Amino acid sequence: MKVVLADLNIEIIEAWRAIMPARADIAMHHGSIFDVQCDALISPANSFGYMDGGLDLAISQYFGWHVQDRAQEAIKARHHGELLVGTAEMVATDHADIPYVILAPTMRVPTVLGAESVNPYLAMRAVILLVEHGTFPDGTPIKAKVQTVAVPGLGTGVGRVPPEICARQMYAALDDHLWGQRHFPGSWLAAVRTQERLTAL
């Protein structure tokens, strides 16, 4: 899976540049996420699939409101009415250039997250696991059709997660779950220290 990190905010771009490695499967785009050539773009949606604010509103206006309808139908049918932070869902857009939107909530409802939240890590992790290990209803692996995803700065809008914290957490999720560096913590103290590294200013 190739990941294109895209945002209009130059501070987020600079934070990504400071931490992301030089790899063929990672790229950055300073500009509209809709300009990225990708198979799916990420909606940092709330847990109930309401797509009428921030980037989600732009997604609804770009693809059509049927994307919100499909998102909520999927949440009701497959997630018992709530897409928890740390999980993800994918819906078709019917758009020729960007065929899918992946919902990866950074918050249950719109709220300020701040620097102490690990939700950007959880949302990025959810995207990776869905694409790398998920399947379509007919059993086809998602990664067979979704090879490039466009991801905005997670939690940096309404959530107000500082750019450097967002970048660190997104890097950690990629390193843990896409690039194969994940190590299970040897104790609860090790787990706490890992969390502290994700949120330290």
Describe this protein's structure.
This protein has a single domain (2-199), classed as Leucine Aminopeptidase, subunit E, domain 1. With 201 residues, the protein is an alpha/beta fold. The longest helix is centred in the middle third of the chain and has 15 residues, at 119-133. The model has no long low-confidence stretch (mean pLDDT 96). It is built from 6 helices and 6 strands, in the order E-H-E-E-H-H-E-E-H-E-H-H. It has a 6-stranded mixed sheet.
Write a brief caption for the model:
The chain has 201 residues and is an alpha/beta fold.
What brief labels describe this structure?
alpha/beta; 37% helix; 201 residues; 6-stranded mixed β-sheet; Leucine Aminopeptidase, subunit E, domain 1
Mean pLDDT value: 96
Number of helices: 6
Radius of gyration: 16 Å
Fraction in helix: 25-40%
Question: What layout of secondary structure does this protein have?
Answer:
Blueprint: E1 2-7, H1 10-19, E2 26-30, E3 40-43, H2 54-63, H3 66-78, E4 89-92, E5 100-103, H4 119-133, E6 148-151, H5 163-177, H6 188-199
Parallel strand pairs: 1-2, 1-6, 3-5, 3-6
Antiparallel strand pairs: 4-5
Helix pairs in contact: 1-5, 4-5
